[in-house]
Amino acid sequence: MTTGPDEPKSRYLRYLEVMTGSLEDKKRWRQYRARVKRLPENYRTAAEALERYLMHFGPADGAGAMAMFADLADLLEQSAADGTPIRDLFGDDPVEFAEAFMANYPLGQYRARERNRFTSAIARAAGEDTAREDRATG
């Protein structure tokens, strides 16, 4: 039921993706999870902990999230192959590591919209709403 790269998606597949999200992203997620399962136990534990953190606080969604998780798998696979200790990888403050890791990825549409909404609300509350002034003068 999958289509090739040059083949248009059927109406059914387009509808299914509207309802469930990108089928390609789901495939990439399953590939990521399989890669994590193959890691040594301590790296797998660290991957699952960081994954859980990223799910709650991560900046990306959709394809951006999948790129972030693929890069995470690459990092952990290489670290395991090199024998890099977990603490050397994550440092003394794992949250600092996670925040620095997330900073490399675009803000997801939902999070960007909510961040802008929050910032605008605070500006209005502080009496700094310049958009309203622009509309009044325009």
Describe the protein in words.
The structure is a single chain. This protein is mostly helical and 138 residues long. It folds into 2 domains: 23-106, Orthogonal Bundle (c-terminal domain of poly(a) binding protein); 109-138, no CATH class. Helices cover 73% and strands 0% of the residues. The chain has 8 helices and no strands. The chain has helices at residues 11-20, 23-37, 41-57, 63-82, 86-90, 94-102, 109-125, 130-137. Helix 2 (23-37) runs parallel beside helix 4 (63-82). The chain starts with 10 loop residues before the first helix and ends with a helix. Residues 133-138 have low confidence and may be disordered.
In CATH, what is the class of the largest domain?
A: Mainly Alpha
Based on DSSP secondary structure assignment, what is the total number of beta strands?
0
Q: Could you please say which CATH topology of the largest domain applies here?
A: c-terminal domain of poly(a) binding protein
Total of domains: 2
First-residue to last-residue Cα separation = 53 Å
Share of residues in helices? over 70%
Shape: flat
The CATH superfamily name of the largest domain is c-terminal domain of poly(a) binding protein
Residue fraction in strands: under 5%
Protein name: DUF1048 domain-containing protein
